[in-house]
Design a protein that fits this description.
The structure is a single chain. By secondary structure, the chain is an all-alpha fold. It has helices spanning 2-28, 49-60, 75-112. It has a domain at 1-29 and 76-113. Residues 32-39 have low confidence and may be disordered.
Length: 113
């Protein structure tokens, strides 16, 4: 039962950290690649002629753009990351539990002798 409590605590902690990181990236306007107004953003070179032409086409309606909510997260990667962290947490907790059990057995054997 203690194992499940420790595992739940670790998974909850990781989930909170990941959620806070995602909220921070979303609030700073970054996409996680160094662009946007978040860290890594800054002055850049002027847009090329092709980019300006495409922008004009978008403005005139020749190119349709679908808007989204601006939250760009790859949930598949996020889920995989959480699974890996849960497995690693389980391994760490299991190793700690085995070491604790062995230590207790040695102590109890020393008391009997």
């Amino acid at each position: 039962m203690r194992f499940l409590r420790h595992l739940a605590a670790v998974v909850l902690t990781v989930a909170i950290i990941v959620a806070l990181g995602m909220l921070w990236a979303h609030a700073s306007g970054g996409t996680g690649t160094g662009g946007g107004t978040g860290t890594g953003g800054g002055l850049k070179a002027a847009p090329s002629r092709e980019v300006l032409q495409r922008l004009e086409q978008v403005k005139t309606g020749a190119i349709k753009i679908q808007s989204d909510d601006g939250f760009q997260a790859n949930t598949g990667n996020l889920v995989r990351t959480c699974e890996i962290e849960a497995v690693l947490a389980a391994v760490v907790i299991t190793v700690g539990s085995i070491r604790r059990r062995n230590r207790r057995m040695r102590r109890s054997a020393g008391v009997r002798a």
